[in-house]
Amino acid sequence: SMATPVMVTVVVILVLGSLGRPRRSQRKTLNLPPGPRGWPVFGSLLSLLADTLPPHRVLAALAARYGPLMHLRLGSFDVVVASSAEAARLVLKTHDLAFADRPPTAFGKILGYDYKGIVQTPYGPYWRMARKLCATELFSARRVDSFERVRAQEMRALAIGLFRCAGRAVAVREHVAGATLRNILRMAVGKKWSGCYGSAEGEAFRRTLDEAFAATGAVSNVGEWVPLLGWLDVQGCARQMRRLRELYDRFYEKIVDEHEERRRRADAADGEFVASDLVDVLLQLAEEDRPESEARLTRVGVKAFIQDIIAGGTESSAVTTEWAMSELLRHPEAMAGATGELDRVVGRGRWVTERDLPDLPYIDAVVKETLRLHPVGPLLVPHHAREDTVVAGYDVPAGARVLVNAWAIARDPASWPDAPDAFT
Prior knowledge:
This protein has 424 residues and is mainly alpha-helical. It is built from 18 helices and six strands. The chain has helices at residues 5-20, 45-50, 55-66, 85-94, 106-111, 125-138, 141-146, 148-163, 172-188, 200-216, 222-225, 227-230, 237-268, 278-287, 299-330, 332-345, 361-373, 406-410, and strands at residues 69-74, 77-82, 383-384, 389-391, 394-396, 401-404. Helix 8 packs antiparallel against helix 9 (172-188), helix 14 (278-287) packs antiparallel against helix 15 (299-330) and helix 15 crosses helix 16 (332-345). It is globular and about 70 Å long. The termini are far apart.
């Protein structure tokens, strides 16, 4: 009988996969960390995607069986997973230079403006420049403090909005997500583009961001792990990213043009220009003279930086706040402790401010316990082995992808012997 098209496709993939992967005799014998063997071509990828549990929990269960430093094959790549504090220390601190790189991804290529942002940037001169700007300019204590007024206004607006819902069910996630998005957008791109005060451009920009947040985390891109399937784009991930990139870019171009025009008007009037948001700061940095040996920030880089700041600062804060509220509601004694501390330190006659935080150790403990049990990025952004490295006596080959399972580390019984899964 004739083979079906599906069978032919499977056979072709298996043959190409076996041709594209080095034979054992061609690879030197490696002392890899223990781990599951996996299937041909796909390794353990299909098992990971087919499981009903999220990947970080599946990998945590495997680590409990194979050890805190585990090797597995995901598609065409060797992957090493660190699932204990000591294993993470070896990867992120002891051998930090060997694993400082990022693996190439469709997200970084398409949505990250060809790796010109902060998160997906590969190791090198641009990487060093990006991190230097983040440490000294964008996220310095002085810069963060300069936006305190914006944060206070948005938090007050959030509280007032919640009080107005008294007596009926409240969609906490919707309120918190809206507040954190407005907060980040006001600090990053300005009041108009945050959607505040009825700005049509801002409202359209926020709708685009909502769609992007839902889309980028919807599915795992198999083409990332099996490059032979990447060009097929079976799941449509690359097409969706390109469409979102076009939507984003139209807004970013308008935002940058508007900021540049405002700076030109200030220069023409011989007035001193004062940066009011991070776009202003980045445009000023892009104009600075730098030695030829150093990487420069370009207009494309400005757009990529802003995108990473918005993406990294919005969803993470909203998710953490929602989890904290959920845990407090599930643990009345913790809620009583938090509200009692607020009554003692702040009282009920004024709003709590950021200056009160050092005097609120119980609230601080609630935040830290929430982040422990519910890390926003359970698997940290993947690292990429730049060279062959020996970690804890095991070989990690160059090109391997290195994952740190923050979810497993935060629930490790070796560090939390008493009820590691409990909110305590």
